[in-house]
Amino acid sequence: MKLRLATLLFSALPALAETLTADEIMRRVADNQTKAQEARKNFVYDMNVFVRLKRASGKLAREESRDYIVAPGATGAKRKLVKVEGKILDGKNATTYSEAGYKKKDMDIDGGLTDAFARDVMWSKNDVRVQAPESNGSGTAKTA
User: With the CA atoms of 90, 96, 99 and 102 taken in that order, what torsion angle do they form, in degrees rounded to the nearest 10?
Assistant: First the structure.
């Protein structure tokens, strides 16, 4: 009796499972992202940005951690830099710093890259969202 009941339950599971097309999945992802972005407009939250640069050999060159407080504003979210902790490795020597945009020397390419990644890449001026692809009627997305 238990075996028949288990067989009946397992055979009914595929009928209960929802099969989704790629278009429907992408539409749900876009809807969830929109909801999350709208919810962020109502909350103050902490944001941590961590950047690590490595040499071509794989050795660590520089790493930096920045902590921000992000709060909603009249025209969008505003962020305030709270703390910076960084470390530059040059062979066996390590230099620590606690200011954004720190450069060890005049021509410090690593410092410029680290600052650009932490400041710009993690805080895009453009509002990027996942868009549901247009359907061509066959259940697949149109290609350009």
Answer: -10
